[in-house]
Amino acid sequence: PGDAPAVHGITAEEIARGPSFSEAWSRFVAFAEGLLDLSLQEEPEDSEDEDAPRPARPPSEPPQLLVPAHNGVRLDFALLLFECQRHSLSWSPLERWLFVDTLDVLRAFGAEGLGGCLKLQCLARVAGGAEGLRAHRALDDCVALRGVMECLAARSGMGLLELLRPFAVQLDAVASMAHVSVLSES
């Protein structure tokens, strides 16, 4: 492993120090499902004791998790499904979430005009606020992608969710399983 080449600057040693895919997946699902739990609203009460705990109630519309990824359809989402299959992990959480491939959003809005390059690193430089971020690091890429999408939303005169919502799709579990099965046989 010490002589293995780095992919995107991430070495084999760095990967070995991180959690296994199963552990990382479990943490991510717990985090994502926790976000949905946070969306519960408190029931207003006419109580004199304002510090008393109030029962939570679901919002009028059930919350949905929107998971954006840059070039996610071709890479990130397929890789997640494949790794879940390879590690015998349930991908049922993915069936409850919505996904947006931000590359599709950028193409639809003619964002090539943001500098001609649709790589996240290029877009982040044009959008600003990418100083100190390291490409292909999960948290840094999330920060960069949010900045790029907020910039595009502002230039388009709309809010971030207003920009992304028309591109949100649900996982097609049957078709995805067929694609993963083909990859698994390779």
Describe the protein.
- The chain is mostly helical.
- It has nine helices and five strands.
- The protein has helices at 12-17, 21-38, 72-86, 92-96, 102-108, 120-127, 138-156, 160-164, 173-185; strands at residues 41-42, 56-57, 66-69, 98-101, 169-170.
- It has a three-stranded mixed β-sheet with strand order 3-4-5. A two-stranded antiparallel ribbon has the order 1-2.
- Helix 3 packs across helix 9 (173-185).
Largest sheet: 3 strands, mixed
Structural class: mainly alpha
From the N-terminal CA to the C-terminal CA, the straight-line distance is 24 Å
Helix content: 40-55%
Give the overall shape, derived from the CA principal axes.
globular
Note the run of SSEs as H and E. HHEEEHHEHHHHEH
Summed up, the helix count is 9
The average pLDDT value, as a whole number, equals 80
Radius of gyration: 20 Å
Poorly predicted runs are: none
Number of strands: 5
Question: What percent strand?
Answer: 5-15%
Q: Looking across the biggest beta sheet, what order are the strands in?
A: 3-4-5
Task: Offer a few descriptive terms.
two-stranded antiparallel ribbon, mainly alpha, 5 strands, 186 residues, 9 helices, globular, 8% strand
Summarize the model shown:
The chain is mainly α. It has helices spanning 12-17, 21-38, 72-86, 92-96, 102-108, 120-127, 138-156, 160-164, 173-185, and strands at 41-42, 56-57, 66-69, 98-101, 169-170. Helix content is 52%, strand content 8%.
